[in-house]
TrEMBL record, chain A:
<dbReference type="InterPro" id="IPR000515">
    <property type="entry name" value="MetI-like"/>
</dbReference>
<dbReference type="Pfam" id="PF00528">
    <property type="entry name" value="BPD_transp_1"/>
</dbReference>
<keyword id="KW-0472">Membrane</keyword>
<dbReference type="InterPro" id="IPR001320">
    <property type="entry name" value="Iontro_rcpt_C"/>
</dbReference>
<dbReference type="InterPro" id="IPR035906">
    <property type="entry name" value="MetI-like_sf"/>
</dbReference>
<keyword id="KW-0813">Transport</keyword>
<keyword id="KW-0812">Transmembrane</keyword>
<protein>
    <submittedName>
        <fullName>Glutamine ABC transporter, substrate binding and permease protein</fullName>
    </submittedName>
</protein>
<keyword id="KW-1133">Transmembrane helix</keyword>
<feature type="domain" description="ABC transmembrane type-1">
    <location>
        <begin position="284"/>
        <end position="473"/>
    </location>
</feature>
<dbReference type="Pfam" id="PF00497">
    <property type="entry name" value="SBP_bac_3"/>
</dbReference>
<dbReference type="InterPro" id="IPR010065">
    <property type="entry name" value="AA_ABC_transptr_permease_3TM"/>
</dbReference>
<feature type="signal peptide">
    <location>
        <begin position="1"/>
        <end position="27"/>
    </location>
</feature>
<keyword id="KW-0732">Signal</keyword>
<feature type="transmembrane region" description="Helical">
    <location>
        <begin position="279"/>
        <end position="304"/>
    </location>
</feature>
<dbReference type="GO" id="GO:0006865">
    <property type="term" value="P:amino acid transport"/>
</dbReference>
<feature type="transmembrane region" description="Helical">
    <location>
        <begin position="325"/>
        <end position="343"/>
    </location>
</feature>
Amino acid sequence: MHKWLGKVLAIVMTIVGVGMVMQPAQAANKPHYTIATDTTYPPFEFQTDKGQYRGIDIDMLKAIAKTEGFTYTLKPMSFNAGVQAVQAGQVDGLLAGMSITDARKQEFDFSKPYYKSGIVLAVSKKDHNIKALKDLKGKTVAAKTGTMGAEYAKKMAPKYGFKVTYFNDSNTMYSDVMVGNTVGTFEDAPVMGYAIKQGTQMKIVTKPANGGWYGFGVKKGSNAALLKDFNAGYTKIVDNGQFDQIVERYVGENGYQAKESASQAKPTMWSLIIENKDALLHGLFVTLELTVVGIALATIWGLLLGTMGVAPNKFIRGLSTTIIYCFRGLPMIVLAFFIYIGIPNLTGSKIPAFTAGVITLVLNEGAYIGSFVKGGFLSVDHGQLEAARSLGLPYGKAMRKVVMPQGIRLMIPSFINQFIITLKDTSILSVIGLIELTQTGTLIIARNLQGFRVWLIIAAMYLIVITLLTWLSNWMEKRIH
Amino acid sequence: MAAIVDVKNVHKSYGDNEVLKGIDLQVTEGEVVVMIGPSGSGKSTFLRSLNKLEDIDSGSIEINGWDISDSKTNIDKTRETIGMVFQHFNLFPHLTVIENLMLAPTELGKQTPAEARETALRLLARVGLADKADVKPDTLSGGQKQRVAIARALAMNPKIMLFDEPTSALDPEMVGDVLEVMKELAEEGMTMIVVTHEMGFAKQVADRVVFFADGYIREEGHPEEVFAHPKDQRTRDFLNKVLNA
């Protein structure tokens, strides 16, 4: 048992070590910023089939950084998470087609407005009934959480008598409209126009309304230097015509075409896999990395909690029970947001998303592990501890040599179960911007709109890994017995 | 000879139920004391309190020179000198028979693994189970398990042995082997305190019989005397029931 535990620890150390080395090297003399962006908000930001981020925002940031001489790390996450990450100080700024509003000005300092937009209503291409807002009476429309489109929808809802449901990313929202769950969506005009141009089966039925400006935002009262650089760089690229070129690249008649062979036959499963091989493997790697590090640390934490749960001291037992109760009671998504967004808000220091993800897994899975470890120890006949103690073994030795080895044997099936749950639970961590396997799927679909096929590939990958993990666990179980 | 167990006025309650109502007992070195009495009379609780598996509420217990009613006394050191045999054997099922015997001596640094192995093999031979050294306990019969449990307790080279109904969980045909081992132990001069329902063993082996009822020691004396001429009414009733059943 000690041998394989040693091996697992060695692997964890290696992965953590590699993770540290993989952090981008920071140039000593140039300022380095972490900028959050939306995962999918074409034409402002989206991922290409090569796994790179493209779009008006991305190209503009690149041009400005070059002009002003700073470097940056891009952190794609959902728009909502991005807003919170800025407020928590987890990132320096948010560049995600964000409209400048009075409400947001309370929390953000904005750059010069860089792009003018307006809200349109778009419906399914097959829909012939809805031609204006008044046709929405009694219907439900979709909007993206935290966007101007959502605000506009909310404002118009009572007047025109429709309901609003909310989504976290554009593609799920478009799909919802196309399958007919909702009749239409309020979206920024350029975004909607681009999506339709890329083959989304929808049409715009209203003129842009409620026009507003996009701005780059930093947390109010901080990062003034970044904002100054951004403004200066923006002025320069507007003056030399570079900005117009960038916009033209995405929304012009001859603009960027995500699917270069859109008119050709639908992609096959195999071509999807080949095309997205790198992205899928990277997503899988992050998922496995989270799982392995998470499981190893959660096991240590869970064993500690379980041991505390059977301690002779009443206070220690109560502490263990309370910790297990709290962290089993919290939904993991709440815990993830609390650690990634909430704690930096309180302490003022950043937590890298990977670390926050691992802490979330350790606290959540550790509580479950602690609970069945305690149960396992309790199910060892009390006479075993008495016999060991009666021979003169102190409590700690009696537990380690007699009670624990028997309890752990009883727990092995629960451990295997928990490992599989942990692997699946890593997908929840996509909400704090970790691009693991599930988020990779979201990003690929954002680009190619092949939802069914891509989710099938992702599902198969999870199943394969879980099968391998189960085999490995069963093999280990046999070795121990 | 000097008393190696000296118990004075021990009281213990579980909630409102007082199970020990002032017990006094002295045992001298080499003596075999058998405690009998009806179920729930407090004899097992009392036996378990002698190595602090049960805490007492008041009174004092001195054993092998350690005052275990004093919370400052190192109970682990005390227990090293007290062997205990349980009704349900409590062998460690994840260890082989010989590992059961070697665990405490090696973990507590009393013996090197080589010495512990030698001692264990000698003790297993003595209880007639030398050929079972490398099997797991769950392959043994009840009688064999209890003999291993006795050998395990002896491996720590105790000064006194406590037996808590050692034959109650055994099939009748297994009882004899276990009692035989205990008898040999008594003949070799081991100090023993035994809780049992085996009246034959009490008559044959005990130097003294102690009769428990309702949390008191009602009567004690040489077995012939207690069995032939019980003074206490409760003792008479009890002996009537068990001897004429």
